[in-house]
């Protein structure tokens, strides 16, 4: 005859496990014990709306997720770790537009977008990304990449090598102070580069030497004190240098450059935004 202890232990385990699965904010078939919500093998087709908002670690691997809607994780104020399925986009090879903005993503797997060969628009803005891996590998048709309002301090060299058709890159509202010289070797056809509200003290070298098709360059709200002789590309039509540390002396220097090459600066440039104090030197 089994002892009372032998009977009670599995019974208590079942009761405890059942409690964990039934606590408020724990989706069906998920395992929840604060601060962890583990939904592996839960047969999920979409991100459940009833997660505990205090969750810090959320695991969604080994499911059948086909869609992550905009703002799916925006109420997870304590979320620090999010594990998405590697095959999340494997069956959506025709996808051309993907918006993952306004979530709390802090790290994405290096292969998560590799099957999206036709993707032209990717928005990862307003997340918690602190570093970029080779997550853009395979995105040969990517035209627009939005990375604004994250926690990026730098962009690793080579991270854009697979995006030769990139036209619009938004890196504004981050903490970037420097970009590698070879970062843009494969994206020389860039039209729009937005670097507003970062920590730049000088304008990235590529703006002068690589981007011959650049039409819109914005680097406002940084700490730039001067600009080298005005050699911005000839197709530039909108330039924003406002809210920097540019002095009157800088503008007087470039006034000579304006006279030296008026075709590039006056006839092509349609919109120029510089500090009001700098205008005093004109």
UniProtKB/TrEMBL annotation:
Keywords: Leucine-rich repeat, Repeat, Signal. PROSITE patterns: LRR (PS51450). Residues 1-22 form the signal peptide. SUPFAM superfamilies: L domain-like. InterPro entries: Dev_Immune_Receptor, Leu-rich_rpt, Leu-rich_rpt_typical-subtyp, LRR_dom_sf. This is LRRNT domain-containing protein.
């Amino acid at each position: 005859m089994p002892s009372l202890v032998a009977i009670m232990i599995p019974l208590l385990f079942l009761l405890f496990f059942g409690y964990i699965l039934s606590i408020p904010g724990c989706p069906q078939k998920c395992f929840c014990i604060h601060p962890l919500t583990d939904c592996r093998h839960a047969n999920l087709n979409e991100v459940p709306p009833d997660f505990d908002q205090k969750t810090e670690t959320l695991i969604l691997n080994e499911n059948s997720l086909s869609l992550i809607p905009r703002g799916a994780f925006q109420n997870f104020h304590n979320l620090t770790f999010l594990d998405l399925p590697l095959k999340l986009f494997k069956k959506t090879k025709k996808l051309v537009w993907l918006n993952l903005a306004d979530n709390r993503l802090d790290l994405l797997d290096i292969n998560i977008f590799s099957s999206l060969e036709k993707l032209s628009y990717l928005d990862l803005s307003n997340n918690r990304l602190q570093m970029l891996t080779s997550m853009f590998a395979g995105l040969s048709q990517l035209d627009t990449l939005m990375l604004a309002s994250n926690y990026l301090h730098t962009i690793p060299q080579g991270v854009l090598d697979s995006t030769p058709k990139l036209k619009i890159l938004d890196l504004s509202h981050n903490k970037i102070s420097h970009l590698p010289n070879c970062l843009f070797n494969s994206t020389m056809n860039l039209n729009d580069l937005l670097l507003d509200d970062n920590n730049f003290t000088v304008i990235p070298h590529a703006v002068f030497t690589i981007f011959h098709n650049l039409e819109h360059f914005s680097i406002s709200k940084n700490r730039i004190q001067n600009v080298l002789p005005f050699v911005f590309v000839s197709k530039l039509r909108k330039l924003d240098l406002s809210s920097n540390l540019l002095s009157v002396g800088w503008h007087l220097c470039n006034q000579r450059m304006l006279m030296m090459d008026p075709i590039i600066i006056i006839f092509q440039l349609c919109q120029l935004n510089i500090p009001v104090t700098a205008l005093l030197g004109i």
